[in-house]
Each structure stands twice: as C-alpha cells, then as structure tokens.
Amino acid sequence: MVVVMEEQASEAQIQHVMARLLALGFDVHRSTGVKHTVLGAVGVQPDFDHRQIELLSGVREVIRITEPYKLASRAWRPEGSVVEVGPGVRFGGEELVVAAGPCAVESAEQIETIAERVVQHGARLLRGGAFKPRTSPYSFQGLGETGLRLLREAADRHGLLVVSEVMDPSQIPMMLPYVDMLQVGARNMQNYNLLRALGTVRKPVLLKRGLAATIEELLLSAEYIMAGGNYHVVLCERGIRTFESYTRNTLDIAAIPVIKKLSHLPIIADPSHGTGRRDKVPPMARAAVAAGADGLLIEVHHDPDRALSDGAQSLTIEQFAKLMNELRIIAPAVGRRVG
Amino acid sequence: MVVVMEEQASEAQIQHVMARLLALGFDVHRSTGVKHTVLGAVGVQPDFDHRQIELLSGVREVIRITEPYKLASRAWRPEGSVVEVGPGVRFGGEELVVAAGPCAVESAEQIETIAERVVQHGARLLRGGAFKPRTSPYSFQGLGETGLRLLREAADRHGLLVVSEVMDPSQIPMMLPYVDMLQVGARNMQNYNLLRALGTVRKPVLLKRGLAATIEELLLSAEYIMAGGNYHVVLCERGIRTFESYTRNTLDIAAIPVIKKLSHLPIIADPSHGTGRRDKVPPMARAAVAAGADGLLIEVHHDPDRALSDGAQSLTIEQFAKLMNELRIIAPAVGRRVG
Amino acid sequence: MVVVMEEQASEAQIQHVMARLLALGFDVHRSTGVKHTVLGAVGVQPDFDHRQIELLSGVREVIRITEPYKLASRAWRPEGSVVEVGPGVRFGGEELVVAAGPCAVESAEQIETIAERVVQHGARLLRGGAFKPRTSPYSFQGLGETGLRLLREAADRHGLLVVSEVMDPSQIPMMLPYVDMLQVGARNMQNYNLLRALGTVRKPVLLKRGLAATIEELLLSAEYIMAGGNYHVVLCERGIRTFESYTRNTLDIAAIPVIKKLSHLPIIADPSHGTGRRDKVPPMARAAVAAGADGLLIEVHHDPDRALSDGAQSLTIEQFAKLMNELRIIAPAVGRRVG
Amino acid sequence: MVVVMEEQASEAQIQHVMARLLALGFDVHRSTGVKHTVLGAVGVQPDFDHRQIELLSGVREVIRITEPYKLASRAWRPEGSVVEVGPGVRFGGEELVVAAGPCAVESAEQIETIAERVVQHGARLLRGGAFKPRTSPYSFQGLGETGLRLLREAADRHGLLVVSEVMDPSQIPMMLPYVDMLQVGARNMQNYNLLRALGTVRKPVLLKRGLAATIEELLLSAEYIMAGGNYHVVLCERGIRTFESYTRNTLDIAAIPVIKKLSHLPIIADPSHGTGRRDKVPPMARAAVAAGADGLLIEVHHDPDRALSDGAQSLTIEQFAKLMNELRIIAPAVGRRVG
Fold it and tell me: What is the pLDDT averaged over residues D195-220?
C-alpha cells in the first residue's frame, strides 16, 4: 500500500499517519519528495479497507498494490490452467471447447433433437437450464430435476458432457449426479453462500461475469470457490451493462485478453446473452475466438420460434453449423483448432 | 404490444406476422400508414418474449406496452403504500424514517453505545450486519446469530426496531425472532430463490437496488416478493455503477421521484454505500430528502477508525447529529418532518 | 509517479526501468519490499504518458500521484473562488445564484414575458440559446445574433444578466457585447480550440460537464481556459450517461461535493438537462441545493407546450415560483440564501 | 409515433391528446384495447420532440417509430456504400482497408520510416496527427501544417493515401491539399459546426464514435455531413466509456454488425484508442475483423518508447506485421481479403 500525502500536509499529520499504520501492523517506509511525502506500507492484509487511511487528515490518496486475489492470479500458476470436464474435453488446451444447447430444457424430444445435431457440428458439452432465473415472477421457471434427467440422458446418448445452472446451495447435492459442470449465472456471481458451497465440490464450475462486475470482482468470486479447495474454475464473459441499449448487453471482448494476462484460469464467451439477438451471435462468437477465448457457450434450438425462453437469441441448427465452419477458419490464427 | 413493420415490408411478410401473432393467442389490429404498417397485438402474457416477433422478417421494431409488473405499480394502489415496521414507525408516512447503525455488529459494547446515541438524535431503526457479503473471501464475514441477538437486545433497551441483512433463504427462520425488517442487499436483488422465500414471510422487507439494476428490474424484484403475498416492501436506492470512479458508486437521486411515480412503494436512500466516503454522506443524505425520499439508511459508528468493516463510510455520532439537524430544516420543504 | 514491479521481476528488469526513468529526467527512489519492489519517480511532467513505463517488462502498475491540473485545483486557492458576473451577482458567495429562461430564444414577446416573470421569483441571470447544438440536422437551430439581441434587451429591461451558449471560436467577438457570461455546452467540453479562445476573453465562462466526462476531465477543461489567463470559470453538472434510461441522463449530484473538495471553482447544477423531464426538475433542483451547489441553471417557459425546443423539460412560471419558495426553505440548511 | 394512454386515462384526456396531435399536423388513428387506448400519429417531423406529448395528462408512453436519420439509413441504399478514398482504395469493398501510422507526426525521419514499413505489410493509408486534441493544456499539441506536409510527402513516396484529424472548420481549406480523408475525432463527433462544414467538402470523412455516443447519435452525426451533400462518410468504432477501467475504453465490437444492419455506410474499428494498451491491440483488431469490420485504424510506431504521444498504444513494426498475417487467415471467414 502506498500512501500519498497532500502537498500541504504538516509534519504532525505525516507522523500521525505513520503511527496509525504501525499500530495496524504495517512496516512503514517514508520517502520525502519535492512536493509530496509518500509512505510505503508493507504487510497489508487482504481484508484491509484502505479507505481507513484515506480519510486521515493530510492524506491525498491511498494506492493498493497487492492484488486482493491469490489463487486466481496468473502469478500462482504462470503456465495457465487446463480444466478437464471429462475425457478429452479440456478448457484451456489447444482445442476450442464449445457448449451448445437450448436456453431451457423443455421436453425429451426437444433436448434429444438438439443434442443429436450439435454434436455433429463439433459441440463437446450440452447446455440447458433446468432452473431459470427469470426477471419476472410470471415467466417459465424451468422443469427442475426432470429437466436435468432429460439433459443427462440426451447427452449420454450422444457422447456429450452436461453443463447446467445452479441457483442455490441447496440444489447442489441433487444436481451432482446429472451434471459434469455447474454453471453460476451472472446474477449469482456475488452470491457468496453459493460460491462457498461450490468450493467444497470437486466438479468444474463455470462462473459467469455479472452485468456490472469488474474483472477484478470476477476474479475475487473465483477466489471464493478456489479458497474452498475447488480449483476447477472456468470464467465466462457474457456482457456488461452500458448506456448503449441497441444490444441487450455490451459483450466486453477485451476482457478475454485482459483476463488471460491477470489469471491462469480459462475464459470463454457467451455471445447469446452478450447480445440478446440471434443475428448478432455469429459475429460476436467469431470475435471472441479471434480475441483468444478458450471456448464458447452458445444457445441453439431446432425451432427457436417455439422455444419457451430466449428463442430470440438462439441460433438455428443451420446457423450453428455455419458458425462452426467459420470458426474452423479463424482458430488457426490464434493457434487453436475446433473439434 | 405494438409491432412496427419495415418500410419495405411485403404484404406476405405482414400476413405472416399477423398469422404468428394470432397463433400465439393475440388479438391483432392492423393500421396501415404512409410509410409503415403497424400491428397492435392485444392480450400479451407477462412472460412473453417480444424478441420472438422482432426477429420475423419484415419487422422493424416491437414495442412492449404493458408494464411487466402489476402489484408494484402505482396503478395498483394510486394513493401510495405506508409500510409499518412497528408501532409508530411507518415508511411512506409524513415522518422521514431513519435507520442508523454500524456496518457490522462487532460486540455488545459497540452496538449498545451506538444504539444509545442514534436514538437520541432521531433514528427509529437500528441497522447492523450479522452476515456480511464481502467481495473478498478473506474479509470479516460477520458474527452470525450472536450478532443478531446483540442487535435485538441493544434495540430493545432503547426503543428501536431492528433491520438486518438476510443472504440466503435458509437463514430466514432463524432471523425472524431477532429482526423487525429483513434487508435484501444489492448483490442479492435478483436472487430469486431468496425473493420467493421472503414472499411467504409476513415481515417488512427492505429491498436494495442492484448496482446495475434498472428501476424496472428493481420493481420486478419487488413483484417477486409481493407475488408471494408479502406486500410490505420498502425500496432503497444505494448507487449504481458508472464510469465515474471518484465516488464508489453514483447515487441515482433521480430514481427517487421516478419510483414515486411508477410505484406505490416507499423508497429510501442509502448514502453510505452510495458514496463510500464519510465526507460525502451528509450532502447526499440531504439531497435524497430534498428529492422526496421516505427515509434514510445510514452507517454510524462511535469509533469509525476502529470499525471492522466500512469504517470509511460511517459517520461519527457528532456528524450524524449535525446531519439530523440539517434534515429538520430541509424536510418541511417537501412536506415531511424528522422525528 | 510510483512504479510497482511484478513479484517475479528480475533485478535486470528493475535496473532497466530505473535507467529508463533516469533517461526521462526523473529522480528515482527504490524501495524493496517482501513481495514487490516499488520505484518512486520524482519530477514528472504534466504531459507525461505513464503508460510508457507501464509497458516495460516486469512492471505491474504505474500510479500517477500529481494531479494533472494546477490552476483549477483547490490547493491553488484553498479559500474558494467567487466569480462575479455583474454587480451583486456572484457565484460561490452566500447567495445561491439562479439562471433561468427558455431553452431557445424564439421571439421578442417570448423572451420579454419570461424575463419579466423569472426576475420576480428571484432569478439573477436570463438564459436562452441563440445557437442550438441539435443532435438532428433537421431540428430548429436557433435565431443567431437576432436571438442574442432580444435576450440582451429583455434582460436589461428587467435588471437581469445574460448567459448564452457559444459553439465556435469564431462566434466569440460577435457575442461579447450581448452576453455577461459565455456558456460552453456539454458536447463542446473537450473542444480545445474553443476552450483556448475563451482563455483570452475576460468574461466569465460557464463550463458544462460532458456526458461521459470524468470530474478530472472537467477540471482539465477548466484548466485550458485558465491557462490562457481567464480565471472566471463556473462549472456545471448536467448529468452523465449511464445504463439507466428512464431519465435522459443521470444527474451526478455527488459531483457537487466532490468538486467542492478538489477545486476552488464554483459549481452549479442544470436539472433541466440532467433529467429531461419537467416533473423531475424540481426534486433534482432541491437535491442539488441541499448537496451544496452554488447555483442552478433552469429552463423556464411561459408556454412550454408551444416551445420550439426542449419544452418537455421546461418549468412553467408557476412551477418555477413554487420551486424558488422550496429552495428558500432548504438553503439555510447549507448556509445559503436565495435572492 | 405511437401514443400509449394510461389504463385509467379518461375519455376527456384521450380527446385532449387527439386534439393536440391534430393541431400539430398529425393524422391520428385510434385503437381501443382492453386495458390501454393506443393512438397512432402519422406525419411526424424529424425535429419533433415526442416528450411534448409524453407530458400530457393520461399519457403513459410515446414511441417514436421513424428513425430520425434518412441518408445514413440502410433503407436509403440497401446494397451498402463503397467509399473510394483513392485509386483502388475502397472502404466497404471486398478488401479490408488498413490505415496505419503514428499517433502524431513528429519529424520527417519518423514518418518516412513508418510509411516505408507499414506499406510493406499491407497498409493502404498513412495516418498521423498534426493537430492533437489533448486532455491537458500542457501536452504536446502537434506540428500543425508542417506535420501535414511531412505526412503527404512520406505517403506519396510510398504510394499511400493520407488521413488526418481536423479539429475546427477554419482548418479545412488549409488541410485539403494535404489529405485524402478528413478524420473527425471522438470528442468532436457532435461539433455540429464542424460537421456542417465537412458537408460542403467533396473528400471522404472518417467519423469516429464519441465516448458516450449511442449508435443512433453516431448515425445522426453522419447525417449532418450527408445533409450537406457529402456522402463519402466512413464510420469508426473506437470504444465507449463504461465502468470497467482496466482498459481505457470498452471497444464495442457488437456495434460493427449493428451498424451494418442499420446503415449502408462502411464501418471500421480503432483498437488502439479502443484499448489504450499495445498488448491488447492485436486481439481486438482480430476481433473487429472477425465481426465484419470494413477496415482498421491502427497506431504503429518504429520506436514507441520514444513516441511523443500515445506510444503506449502503438504497435511496433514487428507486431504490426504479425497482426497483418493473422488477419490474412481470419479475413476469408467473413468473405474478405487483406491487401
């Protein structure tokens, strides 16, 4: 932590700040410049609220130096992590991993049809919601455990793995037999009880960035899970909220290379939620891959006009097939391949 | 719902959209203009995803007309709601209701000292966290049930009511004996399992706006609670996330008059979280009251430099007393009084 | 400037950064911590781009310490500035200064009627646009010099001063005889040619914050004017752009106390543009005054339904009169009075 | 324009709104639903402020239907525009057009070295600022006309075309002999005097999106230029301001496919300003091309550590060469090629 004093700070104020820092357990290092005195404070704890010092009189600014996360930082594993979800399916490896499927599981026929088709075009995981976090209490809320069972069966028939969203700690034990990867939705990115509970599980977690979450906060949420001992975390950029309202959200493509630098965890993109409109999904999926994403989460439906939720942002099977072919052209530019 | 067709939409496209709307159960009403054909669709369900129509060929735009919330709308109770938390303490009445106290309950002495002092200056509720949602897994996480008991005892000794944050549905039964009002934090505004659980409770809920939540989403979250039968909801503006980083968040003061128009529910402000800095709390508290807020939620600590969390945004007792006196001057300008 | 090295930075990297800083003319001061080496660099120039150092290998972060503005900073004039626009009209003094009038000057009758009425209720300046920056090229663009003459004449008849917007350096000489204060609109806050030209004028400037401008950028734009020798600058908060679209902009009320701390310049608020809706103007005007604003800029029209521009955000005379009375109640809470 | 009345609107209120619409010159079309009465108003003028109707009593919402721009809309030229800057250099054609060069022209040697190298790797235009809009009045402000002459000479020696930024209408006549394309910077996107002046020129204009500008506002600014008769406009996405501060701005990649749908004008991206950091430029340049951009504007410097401005976001020659090779792999995925 670096404490910058005001130009006009008195010697008494400087001494008071130094005494306070020492009382808090820091080693203090003073450096007197022409204009400003700067104090280096060594030994800061992760939970230290630097505003405590900022409010002392004579202090101009306090700058935190150590990142507040450890296990999620690139320094902890400089070579990068590979998260294996099942045999041959690894996020963070050479192959770009694609999870595809409907927003919500609706019926055995629906999920079977979709599973059969997405695997043909290169998907490795089948996605589908059984519990849906809906903004309106009057919207379709998902099939629950029945949906999970249908998802599992369809995936097994086609050699796919399963990823589905968990909304509450109490759902975890019931879900474990059905899924290979537990997804935390954007609205739950800071549901700390849920994150802590996932830290005790030994299955990979797909953690989506919240709509208003900074990259640092996303990494801190990953740290919650990892601090519990579960290191199998894959991050997902899915759009942030900005003043531009033409697209539902603004997919922050730059977050991909930024996270690659700050963290060792794999990072994928969800262009379906990131744009909210089917015709914008392929360009943004291509962009994410070109920027270095380790994979994609894409909503696909064989009959989007009749989907019970989010049909508007689901690709048709044909669009998905076309997109996968475009990705096969782009991937080599970033040293990747598509399965 | 109003469907605006493209200028160059063909008659076949228009017919197709009309057929689709009819199949979905709408009454359709066509109006042909010089440039655009406009279709009125009557009978939309709350969970209808209007993007389904937006993607049909020839469609330029689809406009939702009915608000997606009902119980939370002003139309449902045009005269406005008064939420009574305890004898004589009513949000939405003539008196401005102030809830004050520390960020977190730390010890019996701490909460007793603060309770004793805030009641002298006009506070009606004692606030204090027992479960703390912390961005970092390494930060102080609260005293739990012990904290609630200390809060209750201190409040009872001084004729205050208690408001404290609930983070998970499983905590509700344990909390009920200790609190008069259950607070939902910003990060949980869209934790739908929690909202639904609170709908079955018969105690007032203080629902904070999420950092990236629109006003409409806040009202939809209130609707979740009300749809379960609990109509005792008080809303709280606590700052949104914007590009301006000097203050921790941007307290959206305009949300107060906007919500007053859209909804019958009381709305208060939290200038402590809304600014994150002690010296900015009094100006923003005054601003909120001048804009018509029904109350305030303010962090107060008798020794903020030693607070275990958020000391930097807590007022001292003296600052709180001075603020309450300023509010006594301002309140009559908006037809209110301070207790 | 403080340079924080990566944990794993090598001694060679540290030496390279130090050599580079010395070559750039800095005095360097090294401090070796348990984890990080931190370099203090003294003597930074205002135009130094700290990213130059940030990109050197082994560097984790570079922190600027000196504020990039001088003349606009509170340190330059700790007691605060009072900007006198005309006899007895001073922004930054005890009296809250209100500038009122229509969005655009439309006719002699219009401006006369409005001037006559706003002065009765306590306005000190008459505002009115003669050159209108309109988003659409097809909108009414103002009466030009004729509008300025009408504004001047109406103001003189009623003992008011005149403030009007300048859009281009070439308009300044023509405008000077007509106005007492030159307004720079939000869209021109970073039109540096205009700012430089205003630095050579000896009339007060009202500088509005841009829609996406940080507080620091606003102060840097003030610095442009002051660097030319014109110290008579009044700042104006008029709303920033956020994801919340119910109001046209989000009036950042907290900017008022923040600017009061960072700068000695007076700061006023424009709730008309800040909200874009007439019914939200009085609550936000009251909020701005309660937060410590030195004045207000308010659109008032005697017949807003027939206004040629921005009628929707103009108060009627009756609403303006009522607001001024409310402000007379609030002002004493912040040590101010309304004329 | 569609006017939606409140559920509880009285017949008298409805009649009043209809009368007002007729008085304003609209044809009115009434449609009475179960809950809401909806009025269609045909014949709206582009400069009509719909808030005028929104404020009438009984009105719930007013929805604009016609886009406020015409010449810039896709409907005006459905096949898309190709803007030819010089022989064989066409934005919007099959070839991806790359403009490269330093942030600012610094010397004859500098610009000669850079021109010689960027042309080898496929650039078609040489970029370089002669007038620099700098946030701080104390920063390097450019070489002025001398810089333009150096730019022109270096470009001519290497078969490149020239694009450079214009900041003020008064600079246009002087600049015309030196440049092939006039760039309008983000801060001037709504400098309407400048846009109008460029409408009278017959050279292509590169119009950058403002930091807080919506896509609609960008198209309206293009409309200003086109309304003057200059149809040779190329748009440029260069990042918007959001709460995420790790990158300088958030490059809104989705704006590329959105603008492709709404407008016929070519759209390129500027990943240098969009990220502000050299190491993030290649991933974002690749992403923009993968999303369908018609070209790129990239800062390149042969010795970025010694650049007088923005060296931190300039690619080295080697990085530029590597990027162009990656783009050669990606371009075919979107039906493009790199020169």
Answer: 95
Contact C335, C289 (CB under 8 A): no
Site of tokens 């150096």: D150
pLDDT given for residue C46 in this prediction? 56
**Is the separation of the CB atoms in B9 and B58 below 8 Å?**
yes
Q: Do B133 and A192 touch (CB under 8 A)?
A: yes
Q: What is the distance between the alpha carbons of residues A34 and A14, in angstroms, rounded to a whole number?
A: 15
Q: What SS3 class is residue B55?
A: coil
CA A254/CA A267 separation, integer angstroms: 12
Q: What structural domains and CATH numbers belong to chain A?
A: 2-63 (3.30.70.1140), 74-338 (3.20.20.70)
Distances (CA, A) of B299 to B111, B118, B325, C256: 12, 10, 17, 21
- What residues are paired with B9 via a beta bridge? none
Alpha helices in C121-241 (DSSP H): 145-157, 172-175, 192-199, 215-227
Output the average pLDDT for chain D. 90
Query: Side chain identity at C211, as an amino acid letter?
Result: L
C134 vs D55: CB contact, 8 Å cut-off? Answer: no
Min distance A148 CA to chain C CA atoms (Å): 35
Is the model's pLDDT at D307 over the cut of 80? no
pLDDT per residue over A137-181, tens digit each?
Answer: 777 678 889 999 999 999 999 999 999 999 989 999 999 999 999
CA atoms within 13 A on the CB side of B128: 40
B-C C-beta contacts closer than 8 Å: 123
Cβ neighbours of B170 in A, within 8 Å: 169-170
Residues of D with CB under 8 A from a CB of A: 212, 214-216, 240, 242-247, 250-258, 261, 274-275, 279-280, 283-284, 286-292, 326-327, 329-330, 332-334
Place of tokens 């030195």: C294
How distant is the Cα of A249 from the closest Cα of chain C, in angstroms? 10
Give this complex's ipTM.
Answer: 0.88
In a mutagenesis test of the D interface, which of B7, B21, B63 is the best target, namely the one with the most D β-carbons within 10 Å? B63
C272 pLDDT band, cuts 50/70/90, is very high
Residue B41: closest C-alpha in chain D: D33
Q: Compare all CA atoms of chain A with the CA of C65 and give the residue at the minimum distance.
A: A4
Q: How far is CA A94 from CA A335, A337, C132, D39, in A?
A: 7, 6, 57, 58
Residue C29 pLDDT class (50, 70, 90 cuts): confident
pLDDT at C258 over 80: yes
Alpha helices, H only, D176-212: 192-199
Residue of A219, A246, A261, A278 to mutate for D, most D C-beta atoms under 10 A: A246
